[in-house]
Model the fold of this input.
Amino acid sequence: MGTDIGTTLLPRDVPNLSVRRHDVVQEDFPAASFDLVHARALLEHLPERAEVLGKMARWTAPGGWVCVETVMAVHPPSGTRNAYQRCLNAVFTLSENVMGTDQRWGTALPGLLSQAGLTDIGVHCTPGLVGRNGNADAFLRLSLEQIGPALVRARLTTPEELTECTDLLEGGKYTDLALMTLSAWADAPATDSP
Ligand SMILES: C[S@@+](CC[C@H](N)C(=O)[O-])C[C@H]1O[C@@H](n2cnc3c(N)ncnc32)[C@H](O)[C@@H]1O
Done:
């Protein structure tokens, strides 16, 4: 089952996949409903992230798995920041102010999985890279196109700086780290057989 509060972008043609509108904060599933419960790029945006993680653990059947993938901020070295680094930082600040996003929350994730009663915790980090005209460049260019006006209204950047950043991202002219994805998974302990 694939769920979201907005399901229009979820695929309808995947065999064995049903799609359902579901709010992970307001709604529930019965305990032990699934063998695998997975969330990507979701919990960092929800102020209720710890409670939702607890629910995900409850929804997992004994012997099943919880997997959480969360996008984390990459902080530039101290000293002068260029337009790319300042715009990325502006995006983090706006999402924190408007949605309560916490791009550093991933550091607490392994501990929270353990506190939720899960075991065999594993982690893997995938850093994004701009400068190869790949997915990270396109994602950041499109994101800045969409939320650029809001960043300017919030006085987190200027139109000139946005243009400078977009120029850096175009054509693979500028190389730097982009967002980092932390994947963490854990096992719901199997119930003891009699
Ligand atoms: C950054 S997008 C990630 C989308 C997708 N999971 C992915 O990895 O490509 C965050 C998603 O969380 C969904 N979302 C926000 N609040 C939610 C909630 N309370 N319950 C379920 N989904 C929610 C949004 O509709 C949006 O699709």
